[in-house]
Input
Amino acid sequence: MFVTSGSGGLLGPRGLIFNHPGHLLVSNQNVNQAFAGEILRYNGKTGVFIRALVPRTDPNAPFAPRGIVLGEALFVAEFIGKGDNNPPGRLLAFTKNGKFLADLTPDPSEFPREQFHPRGVVVGPDGLLYVSNFRDLATGLGGHVLRFDPETGDAIYSDD
Output
């Protein structure tokens, strides 16, 4: 094993990427815990825990982080929020050093808030963020791929 269970609090890794200078960043859900998830940083050559880049104590820490991607910022797909009955998730942006920048969750007038449960996020060849969204947690049906401008945080719904 490269990073063992429990190392640095690892309990439910969901997404991972390497940054520059080669650290491994892991979105850690903290499965079956009453506290938020976090983004953990490990040495990319040894797997040794360095620190929580976004600690669970941060007021903007994702509760159930899944996808993670690094562009001009660190973008994290939070699958569900804290609470009962599968509350909607968020799309969060942090600096490369883990400071909160923005909540990029779509405006409810453009996309139903209760149906926003992002899982994966990538930067496309056009520089936009592409986010996979698992729509209906009760039935498991549906889903979307949404696009966002990573600089403004605006959701893009057409080819404009």
